[in-house]
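As a warm-up, study this chain.
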Amino acid sequence: MQTFTQKKIAVINDLSGYGRCSLTVAIPVLSAMGIQCCPVPTAILSNHTEFPVYFFDDYTDKMRAYAGKWQELGLTFDGISTGFLGSAKQIAIVADLVEMFRRENTKVFVDPVMGDHGILYATYTKEMCEEIKKLVVLADVVTPNVTEACILTDTPYKENGWTRKELLDRAMMLQNMGAKSVVITGVREGNFYTNVVLDQGAKEAEFVKVKSGGGQRPGTGDVFSSVLAGAVLNGKSLKASARQASRFVKECIIKSDELEIPHANGVCFEEILGKLS
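Now compare it with the structure written out below.
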């Protein structure tokens, strides 16, 4: 009789108590997909930083001791996922944690949360941009948006008018940096968003399109990356995982608009979480 073993993923990200982002997205989403989500907090916030005020407690100096107890316990993980990171020191710690817990079959998902619309986030420095490339080298799947793909590959950014060849070139550059597979997310093409999927060993990218469901909201990237990781760990192909993640994000946005959820509150994924079960 085959023994069922539940999949486990270590998710390295911040914990924001209000606003639906980071760990407060990853934990319920991955749990709904039947995967045990094991958080490694990088910082504790009362709410995410798009609100006018917030409490912030940096967890950088505690991360090694935190993960060290997991190492003492001999814990292993089927996946490791990284999200927003707040300093060059933190990026270096995360790279060490990936090396510490990675096993032969562990999938490493790197979401290089650095900027959007051609602009770096205010907390990011040139040093951090260089350091994050070290995580890309460790990634089984890296999921940058177009801005982040350009930053990582040191290539020019433009808001619109991307050709498929240009997008494929950037995905291939990320593979050449060391990432096994690449998903460039949220490329705007008219009324559609396209995700560029370049799987390990593939010579051509696949393009997963979904019609826009509404405006952008905080936390949609966290929803996308969580669903993608969960789907891959559950045995789906990278293309199918990207399609499931894209469609779920769209449905979340539509539901949030229907319920008139304030923009800063992110997406109301709780209403449709059962669709991931």
